[in-house]
Amino acid sequence: MRFGIVVNEGPYTHQASDSAYRFAVAALEKGHEIFRVFFYHDGVNNGTRYTVPPQDDRNLQKLWSELAEKHGLDLVVCIAAAQRRGILDANEAKRQGKDGDNIAPGFRISGLGQLIEAGIQADRLVTFGD
Amino acid sequence: MGTLHTINKSPFERNSFATCLAHASAGDVILMIEDGVVGARKGSSFAPALAAKLASCAIYALGPDLAARGMKPEDVLEGVKLVDYAGFVDLTTEKARVCAWL
Amino acid sequence: MSDENRKKFLYINRKAPYGTIYALESLEVVLIGAAFEQDVSLAFIDDGVYQLMANQDTAAVGMKNFSKTYRALGDYEVRKLYVEKESLAERGLTAENLMPIVYEDEDDDYAEKPSLIFVDRAEMAALIRSQDVILSF
To answer: What is the number of structural domains in chain B?
Structure first.
């Protein structure tokens, strides 16, 4: 089956990203396809490579990036939500006149249409949030 | 096929759990995850409401979230079944849609 | 787009506006989603009914008042806004407290028709059960 996953909260404050990650791993292990993981609201904060959690804690950004690399996952950060919260890729940083970008490997910034498309293309859309 | 309702809030924190119960139709499945598993404990003041819903819906709790909160399988209301993340995935495939109560 | 390619999308709104960003960002999804020509419904449950209150005035809290956007949804072919009666009653509200939201029916000489549909909890549960995709805010 083909899944879309929505992550509506950032890492650490809420369990949403952890739950979504564990769900994604379990779905992939069962041979399901993940069409897209869409990060919305504060969920965009999963996509900054500047997070530095304590060494004995999990690094959710790295977990997502590694899962994306291993399985070719499409991790999409909502552009409107990202701009509000300071998540930028190189193009956006240039366009907005900012002095650097912070998007993590495996993540890309795109529009809300990607969420609707995930709803259309996936057999099931599963939301994790607050 | 019905709906899989996920509930991630304790019934003691918000009204999300009550709203979830009120909108789950007969034949639907309810899965407690994250702080939602607080609602699974037997002997709580919420247990009668959950027990009443067992008559029309299958109810599950995510084992890893129970364990993380210091609860054992025997602490869970009778009739509530436990699943792991793989079981969570299976429940989503068995139902036609997933409705998250946040 | 033909009907078999259309999915039924339901946006469930359960939070009051301004205290959190969910109402505003839900609305942003609805507006973008309108371009995809799906079968869209919005549900207002619990404190979500406060999103539809008339006379919202945000001047003194310094936040953007986005309540007018709900009234423009008809222009985006979003015409089914389901409001739960029990949620209103629990909060001491009635339909009269909400904004009038209408759409122009092109099949009826552009007559203005109400977009707000008041349903009870059982009807809301049935609505949820009839959807393909549910987005919760």
So the answer is: 1
- Per DSSP, the three-state class of A95 is helix
User: Which of C121, C132, C134 is opposite residue B22, by nearest beta carbon?
Assistant: C121
| Average pLDDT of the residues of chain B | 98
- Confidence class for position C3, pLDDT limits 50, 70, 90: low
Other residues' Cβ atoms within 10 Å of the Cβ of residue A124: 23
Domain residues for A98? Answer: 2-128
C135 closest CA partner among C62, C66, C36, C64: C36
A71 is known as an active-site residue: no
Helix (H, G, I), strand (E, B) or coil at B1: coil
User: What pairing do the DSSP bridges indicate for beta strands C102-105 and C111-114?
Assistant: antiparallel
**Complete domains list, chain C, with CATH:** 3-136 (3.40.1260.10)
CATH number for B8: 3.40.1260.10
The pLDDT assigned to C5 comes to: 72
Q: Residues A78, A79, A103, A118: which is the catalytic one? A: A78
Rounded to the nearest angstrom, the minimum Cα separation between B100 and chain C is: 6
Q: Which chains touch B (3 or more CB pairs under 8 A)?
A: A, C
